[in-house]
Write a structure and sequence with these properties.
It contains 5 helices and 8 strands, in the order ββαββαβαβαββα. The longest helix is centred in the middle third of the chain and has 18 residues. The chain is α/β, with parallel strands linked by helices. It is elongated, with a radius of gyration of 31 Å. The protein is 38% helix and 27% strand. The N terminus is likely disordered. The strands form 2 sheets. Strands 2-1-4-3 form a 4-stranded mixed β-sheet. The relative contact order is 0.10.
Length: 195
């Protein structure tokens, strides 16, 4: 078995600009010397800038690099907040109790940091009275204005009238508040009845 470093047949350049494992500049060296240095240090020779003249290569543990970049990407995805649009459907002639229930759902969604799409469905002769739906949407927007703002004003869309309400606080803030409240509740020990 020879101690000669193996040269990849795809490498067609005589020399490369070499960067050390700690980011220090080694300089321009021949490809044979770069491969020899990589083998001695038990590291991989990775081409990081192929279009540069001469190409830039770095000595690194490629498996460790791939693992760390995958972990960073995973952490970034975990901290990412997805904005979800929840939908509530109403009718123009809604009962007061049903209205309060639907308003409670809108409040819950806004507190969680989600957007809410409010749809009023018109049927039959109700279509000739769109002002009823408009008033209902305005009333709902006024009732929840401390939690959210009207992102898209009421507009007629065929048989429906649609309005979008966005939350004042972002999804990440709502998650953090919820976690803090849960931790506070968990910290308090339930009191036992005295005998």
């Amino acid at each position: 078995m020879s101690t000669e470093p193996r040269i990849n047949e795809r490498i067609r350049v005589p020399e490369v600009r070499l960067v050390g494992p700690n980011g220090e500049q080694v300089g321009i060296v021949s490809i044979h010397d770069a491969l020899k240095l990589a083998q001695e240090a038990d590291l991989d020779l990775v081409e990081v800038a192929a279009t540069a003249r001469p190409p830039v290569c770095k000595l690194m543990d490629y498996g460790k690099f791939k693992y760390e970049s995958a972990m960073k990407a995973r952490e970034a995805r975990k901290n990412q907040a997805h904005t979800i649009i929840k939908e509530i459907k109403l009718r123009p002639k809604i009962d007061p109790h049903d209205y309060e229930t639907k308003k409670g759902h809108v409040v819950r969604f806004l507190k969680a940091g989600d957007k809410v799409k409010v749809t009023i469905m018109f049927r039959g002769r109700e279509q000739s009275r769109p002002e009823l739906g408009f008033r209902l949407l305005q009333r709902l927007a006024d009732d929840v204005q401390e939690l959210g703002f009207v992102e898209s004003h009421a507009k007629q869309d065929g048989r429906n009238m649609i309005m979008v309400i966005g939350p004042h606080k972002k999804k990440a803030e709502a998650k953090a508040e919820k976690a803090a409240a849960k931790a506070q509740r968990g910290g308090e020990e339930p009191s036992l009845p005295e005998e």
